[in-house]
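User: My collaborator and I are trying to settle a disagreement about how two of our proteins should look. Neither of us wants to argue from intuition anymore, so we agreed to look at predicted structures for both before our next call. Could you fold the first one, then the second, and keep them clearly separated?

Assistant: That sounds like a sensible way to settle it. I'll keep them separate. The first protein:
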Amino acid sequence: MKWSVVLVAACLTLTAAAGAAASTWYVQADASAGGDGSRGRPFATLEQVEAASKPGDTIRVVPSMRPLGGGIQLKDRQRLVGLGNPVTKAAGGARPTITNTTAARYNGDAVRLASDTLVENVHIDGAARAGIFGVNAARAQIRGNLITHNMIQGNDLPRLERLWPDGFVIYQSQGNHFGGITLLACGPGGESYCSKLVPAAAPAANTGQTVMAGNVIRDSNLEGIMLLTDTGATAGFTITDTDVRDLSLNLPRPESLTPQVGIVRSRAFTLIALNRSQVTLDLRRFHAENLSPAGNYATDGIVFLTGGDRPVVNARIADAAVLNPRMAGEVNNGDSIEIQHRGTTGGVLNIDMTRLELRDPASANIKILEAQNPTGGVYNLSVSDSVFSNANPSGGLDGQIRLSGAGISTKTFNLAVRNTRFSGLGGAIGILNANNIETLSVLVENSSLSGFTATSGAKPIAAVTVTHPSDKTIGTAVIDLGGGPLGSKGRNRFVNNPGLDLSVSNANAAAGPIRVDASNNYWGGGAPATPAKVTTNGNVTFSAASPLAADPAR
């Protein structure tokens, strides 16, 4: 009997403790004043529900015709959930909407994350800075949200400039790192990007796995999703079923302002890894289009950038589309996917890409770029089962996959392309190396590199171009289009190209040769052992045995 009483009392105590630890609160913009946060008497402001709620609580946003203003800072383990129909599909009417139109509270961010928080089915509209913002927000989940009119403010440029003491957030071509979703992860040690932006933020050695699923970001300025890691942080991201569209479309041309402004970044997705940070990314079913108006905008779709000392990125992209139906963007920087070591020492970018649809960039479909003299960089890149095309007359003509190697040295560049179709303006692959490189490996198999065109008056570009200058060293260099040491099966088709099918040049006679194998390919029919539309210059060896007599059309 005594044990029964003790057990009952213990259960009651635990139940009470659990109830106290996890409450549910309601907030509604149309609610009457004096509510207590219950379902029948919801709070009327975000400030009220933020003050009343505790870590682990659930906050439910009741649909209203007006948004809840002022933004909200979540606490650890809180859930912010919008009630009603899915906001990403609703045509109109009352929605669970949050905004923050001034910098007076949370710098204009609409929702600020903490660790183990969830934001789900919320319409975030008209935030002055980030729609959802997190610093070392471990294991956050962002699901099914609609983010619109981010950093728009009616495109009132003087008003936007007054919001931030550091100046104009819109036209900071390199310094702007705010988007519809902006997450920073910084570990301990040294001055990090997080400490500069949010000095009070505690460092985090590992932010775990962040999940984003089913979010839509549109009709906003500059950025869709921005992820940045620094100072040894370890971070993982799983991002699925994301739509980013119609960015910066109403901003004026940067070059039309007084004084003129340089190139402005307008990007759908950006991942920046700095200073020994370790990042993994799984990006699936990602759609991006209409990423800027005409003018000096870098209309990049997906960007990977490293900086500092030995950062590592391991990424997989699957079922992604980056489209440019308005043919907009700045010629030198508008890329569907940009992969860059920027002033990096020993950086590593491992990126596997499959089932991509990349069309009509202002520059390249995949540009591998080196800037500010990186050293010892590693690129391990693969592309499979994809379609690349370009009908944009301002697009770069030297390769829809282009390496612009212009650093001090590259340790390794590995590129494998399989089962992929290239067509349109320019060529398929351009390896335009201008630095010292230890290992250069390019494999292409079962792919169509055909039907290329050139703009009026422009010289046609080869389907595959490889160049190396006389004053730079080169170690092992293999271009395997079939039958070579990298294992390419060949079966590539080079058909209806106005320029060359293949052009390889190595001006460094003292270094090792660039080895080119191109066997078991179709060269437009009846090709000789050395195809007529192939040129090699300088220190190059070439073999193209067993050409295919029939077109392996795909």
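The second protein, kept apart from the first:
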Amino acid sequence: MSRRFPALLLLSLLLLPLASAEYQQSEWGNENSLAWEYGFDSGFISTSALFTGEEILVRTSGNGEPAVTAFDLAGEKLWQRINNRSLSNDMSPLIHVSAGQGDCGEWPEMVLVGWTDGRIEALLPSDGTLFWSVQSEVAGWGVTGEFALDGEYVIVPTRRGVGQYCLADGEQQWWTQTGLGWRNGVSVSESGYFLGDEYGVLWHVDRTGESLSYPLGLGKIRHSPLLTGAGLVVHAQAVSSSTIAVIDVSNGSVIQQFPGGPSPAKPSLHGTSLVTGDSSSLQIFSCTALCRQVGDLPFHTNGELRWLDDGVILAPSNTPDSNWGLFTFDERENLTYTSLDVGIYGFGTAAPLQFTANDQVFTVFGNDQALLRVFTRAIVEVDEPLIQHQADFDWGTQGLLFIIFMLIGSSTVLFLNGKMDWFYRTSSLFFLIILLLILPDLSTQWSKIFDEQFPTEQEEELWNAQWPDSWLDTQIVIIEMDGEEHAVGGLTGHLTVYSLTQEACDELGFEIDGEFTELGYYIESINGVEAKGWEYFTDGSKGVMSVDSASIESSTIVRWTPV
């Protein structure tokens, strides 16, 4: 008995780490440091900052400076455009437009601004020069909702309608009357445009300006409706509650309803994952054929919600003494919350902005205190992608580890009791399990060595002259499907093929399905196309590693082809 006790004690100590492997604390505060800050004289920062690739643009409104202000990455103020005719809080998000051309003509890179005095302006981001300006309707106030880009046009929700304007010169193509709106953003679909109003009516307007109305009767719609695989999602605001509704886009009928708290935030979609918020909680839904609630945590947020590439959500807390919320959500449907203290307290609705430039990750915070704070971290310190986090706690691996610890304890007892025959048997099984655990790493390393020693013949991925110049030196994804190539460029900041492909598919409206294996994550279907699988090429070289392990450069071209 005295011999067994030390072995069992050793076994118990070895098992202790397993109990805490599933829960992790955020290290954001340790990894990020304050780079610079800027205090506006007064006013509110009510919508997220915008990064154009060179400048950080911030809009302020309210009683102080109704303006758009540009900063360089070091915090130097470059220019400011003030609109003293602004009537109220300007909450229409800034829109960045790449240079292009169409039937209306050509346009340079520019930033679109909607003002509450009804003006729509196109500014050059380099120096704030006005490229064109158009006056839209004012009924109490003017533009407050989010624009949408559709080819050579910008679609603008005005106070009592929606209009289509040429990007080249701002000329109005048509304007259609809808219901009275406030922060009523517009979204683009294959059939046209969707937006809501203060009376709870969902509007569909086709590309000629013809409209249909669907009275939902659920409450005010104060955000851009979101297109998901399950249908169109709106978060409607009632007097003391709200409803998250899934709508059939073909007939405007309500397919699903989920209850929410008062004063909803602007919902945000990341692939098939949907986040909503209100004065009581933040909720996560998985929307495929239907939407399914998969997470819910108490949190007070009424503004913009920001998804990051690795499954992290940043949200402002709209309370008098609030900090910021950082939420993590993974494929195992674990939702965790960490409070961030970034030195700005109080009411706020603007989502933080995060982008990568000059080998650093920048995170920009601002709220109703008129204080802008910018944090940075070195790009080498960027958290591992979502797929890497999913592997941090694997029940299969943990089960094998448990068996190993049991074998260690049993072998120790057998050895101490002199039962060498049984000791050798349990030891052999122990080493076999160890071999199974290290096999994935051996396979990955073997793939790397084989690829280096015996490179496959490759054909360099060439630049397509039809791509816009703004795609130069950025990350590009090409997906071959049904004899056509779907290309998305101008992407930045991705470290793996998986992260880059997911953002490209989000922009294209494609869904990705894959499988986790001991060797990593492998994509099986894109937009419902399975074939015999999919393979990828990076700059013309066939991929040999799982997509979550395949690292990429800042100007990589990734091509996906069905097998």
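Some points you might bring to the call about the second protein. Helices lie at 4-15, 28-31, 386-390, 395-416, 420-453, 497-508. The first strand starts at residue 33 and ends at 39.
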